[in-house]
Amino acid sequence: MITRFLTDVRVKFNPFSPRSKPARLFLSLIPPNARADGMKVETQMLPRTSKEPSTLGVKFKDGKEMNLDLDKMRITEVMEEVDRHSRLLARKEELTGN
């Protein structure tokens, strides 16, 4: 997963729910030095009895924001969505020569 274009990650999930697996896996894919490199990572743990769906909010360097409902998605689909825009930003960066 391409994380160098992410500036802000917000995850809300119930850690005891089996449907929160994509949220947990996404957090595990973020590199350990991401916060030191300027990425803001916010996690909100919901109580065990919560029926609220797991959500993921991602903000990119170009200002685009993605809000994904993780209850209806698999981790591969989440990675595809995030990587699609990251590859577009990488291509733009490559073409401008930065």
TrEMBL record:
Q: Does the keyword Ribosomal protein apply?
A: yes
Ribosomal protein as UniProt keyword: yes
Query: Any idea where this protein resides?
Result: Mitochondrion
- Give the matching InterPro entries: Ribosomal_mL53, Ribosomal_mL53_fung
Q: Which UniProt keywords apply?
A: Mitochondrion, Ribonucleoprotein, Ribosomal protein
- GO cellular component term of the entry, any: mitochondrial large ribosomal subunit
| GO terms for MF | structural constituent of ribosome
What Pfam families does the annotation carry?
Answer: MRP_L53 (PF10780)
- What family name appears in the similarity comment? Belongs to the mitochondrion-specific ribosomal protein mL53 family.
What name goes with this protein? Answer: Large ribosomal subunit protein mL53
Q: Which organism is it from?
A: Trematosphaeria pertusa
